[in-house]
Write a structure and sequence with these properties.
Distance between the termini: 64 Å
Order of helices and strands: EHEHEEHEHHEHEEHEH
Strand content: 15-25%
Largest sheet: 9 strands, mixed
CATH topology of the largest domain: TIM Barrel
CATH architecture of the largest domain: Alpha-Beta Barrel
Structural class: alpha/beta
Number of domains: 2
Strand order of the largest sheet: 7-6-5-4-3-2-1-8-9
Number of helices: 8
Number of strands: 9
Shape: globular
Helix content: 25-40%
Length: 246
């Protein structure tokens, strides 16, 4: 959407992770890094299915020169949802519509993250592609149309196209798990504050831009993800072995 050329445009990164879920840095390290960058007006810590780090950030927001939005990345049965402006948990495993309704009940906004990332929820992604109207029916407030981490070719392009078709608000986010990825995807909006951003999302006046993660961040994330999966696999095998002996 076109903006007034004379109006300031804020910059927000609405998707990032800490050690509270699968990120590599603590929430304080993340926030201190953002303060040093000096390029973002608002951020949301959106760890997977936990508010711990986000609530710490929100409680300490007066320490930082940018606005902090409480949030979480909810694992719904039909993809990942960024629940923004909430301070209470949303159950995982609900349908997209149920998840959006739960977010709204808590006073938040629901953003469908990386909607066409086939590695997350392939069946849901194909459904959104062939029947995009279900996104409106589910009640999502916006689509993430630039995700800096996505490995699936065309994911962001498809998200932009569907958002435009549905006249849905858009967001951009880094999905950063490392410090180097922060700010690789941003949401642009009229104004500078979190309140300005929320108003812009509700009015459909946001835009999204960015680039892909640096290759070093991809490699580090892949290495960390592989280690976590191997650790979980080993723990499961150990548990099953003990149960067998009993």
């Amino acid at each position: 959407m076109d903006h007034d050329r004379g109006a300031p445009l804020g910059r927000a990164d609405l998707h990032m992770h800490t050690t509270a879920s699968d990120g590599f840095y603590s929430v304080q390290q993340v926030l201190d890094h953002i303060a040093r960058l000096g390029t973002l007006d608002a951020v949301a810590i959106t760890d997977h299915d936990t508010l711990d780090a986000s609530l710490w950030a929100y409680a300490n927001r007066a320490r930082y020169p940018f606005d902090i939005i409480p949030g979480v990345e909810v694992s719904s049965a039909e993809g990942h949802v960024l629940a923004l402006w909430i301070t209470q948990p949303v159950p995982r495993g609900l349908s997209l519509a149920e998840t959006a309704a739960a977010v709204h009940e808590l006073g938040g906004l629901a953003v469908l993250a990386h909607p066409f990332e086939l590695l997350i929820s392939p069946a849901a992604s194909l459904r959104y592609l062939h029947k995009p109207a279900v996104l409106l029916q589910a009640g999502v407030d916006a689509l993430e149309v630039h995700n800096a981490s996505t490995p699936t070719p065309g994911n962001n392009w498809l998200a932009r196209r569907i958002a435009a078709t549905l006249s849905l608000a858009v967001t951009g986010g880094s999905d950063a798990h490392t410090l180097g990825g922060i700010g690789a995807g941003i949401t642009r909006f009229p104004g500078r504050s979190a309140a300005d951003l929320r108003a812009a999302l509700l009015a459909g006046e946001t835009s999204a831009e960015g680039k892909a993660w640096p290759i070093t961040d991809y490699l580090r994330h892949l290495h960390g993800s592989t280690r976590r999966k191997l650790s979980a696999f080993s723990a499961t095998n150990t548990r099953l072995s003990r149960q067998t002996r009993l």
